[in-house]
Amino acid sequence: MTTRNRIFFPGNPWPEGHPIEEFRWTASVRNNAVWFDLHLRSEDYEAEREIEAPEEDDEDDFPSDWEAPGVWTNYHRCTISSTQWPNYRGFAVCPLPAFSLERIDGFEACVDNAPPADPRDNAFHIYLFSHGTVAHHRIRFERIAGTDRFDIVWTGKIALSFGGDPDFDRAFTATLFDVAAPCIPSEP
Question: Sorting pLDDT into bands at 50, 70 and 90, what band is 151?
Fold first, then answer.
């Protein structure tokens, strides 16, 4: 992965975003349909730039945990995945006979736009400041001409549900470049 692959959390202490350490795009066939799974893990939040910790008395000077560097660094890095934890499912793309690289060139998946009542029914899970809930995904695939590689822009909304906040009032954007398309297995 190049350092161009980044994840951004608007309003957090690093407006320049964070490098992505690991990204996997895999595919499976379920009930004669192609499904995609994505797994993203950032580098440590302070991998490129440390933020000096405030004096202990100043820790409450931030309007929210979202703006407090110490809260972020306490949890080290972010993982958004449909494969790392049980119960998460990825998303359906199309019937197997209709699948081709040409078909997904420019394809934008909209996933969990109406999040299920039980977060375990979502396509993805997030570890950000402990475990949270992630939904309202838009995942766009742009093929690099003449190749089996794609640039991907993935956006979504985050609910800091581990702290009891069910509202999807935070966001992320991940930009990934030159990612190999997964092999599509035949249905077992």
Answer: very high
Contact in structure between 91 and 123 (CB atoms under 8 Å): yes
CA-wise closest residue to 74 among 22, 13, 154: 13
* Total length of the chain: 188
Average pLDDT value over all residues in the chain: 88
Q: Residue 61's pLDDT is what?
A: 74
Q: Which of 113, 63, 119, 59 is nearest to 89 (CA)?
A: 119
How sure is the predictor about 116, in pLDDT bands with cuts at 50, 70 and 90? confident
For the chain, the three-class secondary structure string (H helix, E strand, C coil) is: CCCCCEEECCCCCCCCCEEEEEEEEEEEEECCEEEEEEEEEECCCCCCCCCCCCCHHHHHHCCCHHHCHHHHHHHCCCEEECCCCCCCCCEEEEEHHHCCHHHHCCCEEEECCCCCCCHHHCCCEEECCCEEEEEEEEEEEEECCCCCEEEEEEEEEEECHHHCCCCEEEEEEEEEEEEECCCCCCCC
Tokens of residue 136, six digits: 């309202």
Q: Is the per-residue pLDDT at 35 higher than 80?
A: yes
What does pTM read for this prediction? 0.90
Token digits for 153?
A: 């822009």
